[in-house]
Amino acid sequence: MNSVDYKCLNCNAPLKYNPSGKNWKCEYCGTTFTKEELKANEEKFEKAKVKNKKTTESNDQKVDVDEYVCQNCGATIIADKNTAATFCVYCRNTAILKSRLTDKFEPSKVIPFAKTKKDAIAGFTNVCKGKLFMPKEFALERNINEITGVYIPFWLHSLDLNVIMNGKGSKVTTWSAGDKRYTKTDIYSVEREGDVFFEKVPCDGSVRFDNAIMNSIEPFDYKELVDFSAGYLSGFLAEKYDVEKEDAKTNTLKRAKATAEAEIRKTIPYASFVPNQNETNIKEETLDYVLLPVWMVNVKYNGKMYPFAMNGQTGKMIRNIPYSKGKAFLAFIIIFTIVFIISMILTYIFS
User: Fold this and answer.
1) What element of type H or E holds 104?
2) Cα separation, 333 vs 92, whole angstroms
3) How far apart are CA 79 and CA 82, in angstroms?
4) Residue 91 — φ and ψ, nearest 5°?
């Protein structure tokens, strides 16, 4: 397996994707490069070779890991089987594991990061402001610095569904005449058929990433999807999918069918409807494998992980901040003491 780290064509320093400039900028000499310039020189970057493939066991389960050599400092780094881009823990140089981005694992599209790490840190800091009972450990500088940009694998399912819905509808009318009350039930034969098109229904391609987090920071603007280039991963982490294509299709098709049938049902003007036929067929479908940008950090407090995540395109955030029982108790004691002292003073004055 080959790993690639993109380097400046002028000074050979590591290159990282620059979301604000939508280019690749050298942090040492300041030179910027376009996607076309990097692509033209891509063969210069393909130098790192994977040495060995090992298998370790954890909790009686086998986990495939690979070793690669950092081209910046020479350290040997280990990545698990789902990592497509990672960092050297010693010099922070990026390594893109290209063999994990080929054949069926090569994404067709990617939404590049638009929000920078500075934006993510500002968002995290603002979230922490004013939280009087937040544990001090939560906003430690080391936690802020661990905010990392990650490309999350996703399947986008576009499909055209044909829905056929036939059955019996009923309409009940009641009226009174004199001292009598009448009820009339009209039965109607109902036939409905329609096409419902869905564009890019998302399905999380990583079992390790919490679906609730992704649902909370959506939506992404899919108009900004661009053709995949490994260069966009430079400076970020990335995973390859471990939810298979057919499983993703099953998940998204179930959601699309339920929505399509509900839309057709809305066209039936009868509150009571008993279907005789309810059939949904796929006329056309496509499934794209893409990478979506997320800034995130997990902060551990009292043995529990509290996630912070930001949509790397729009800046929408999700946060789960704990409260310190010690701080809350201390605040209670202080307030109680102040109230007690004021009460004693007032009692003394007016007694």
Assistant:
1) none
2) 46
3) 8
4) -115, 0
Q: Tell me the three state secondary structure of residue 71.
A: coil
CB-based contacts of 316-319 (< 8 A; 24+ apart in sequence): 316/216, 316/217, 316/218, 317/123, 317/127, 317/217, 318/213, 318/216, 318/217, 319/124, 319/127
Helices (H), 2-78: 35-40
CA 319, 325, 326, 329 dihedral sign is positive
Q: Which helix (H) or strand (E) holds 311?
A: strand 304-311
Peptide bond into 219 cis (omega under 30): yes
Nearest Cα neighbor of 41 from 4, 2, 90 is 4
d(CA 147, CA 111): 19
Q: Which residues contact 290 (CB under 8 A, 6 or more apart)?
A: 107, 108, 109, 110, 111, 153, 154, 155, 156, 225, 228
Residue with tokens 């009598």: 180
Give 119-147 pLDDT, tens digit per residue. Answer: 988 888 887 776 665 666 666 777 677 78
How big is the chain, counted in residues?
Answer: 351
0.85 exceeded by pTM:
no
**Could you tell me the two tokens for 294?**
């997320």
Backbone angles phi, psi at 94, to 5 degrees: -80, 140
Domain assignments of the chain as residue spans, ordered by start: 1-101, 153-320, 325-351
Q: What is the tens place of the pLDDT at every residue in 199-253?
A: 999 888 888 777 788 888 888 999 999 998 878 887 788 877 888 989 999 989 9
Six token digits for residue 211: 């679906």
Please state, in angstroms and as integers, the Cα–Cα distance from residue 283 to each residue in 69, 243, 264, 351, following that order.
48, 24, 16, 87
Six token digits for residue 137: 């450990």
Does residue 239 sit in helix, strand or coil?
A: strand
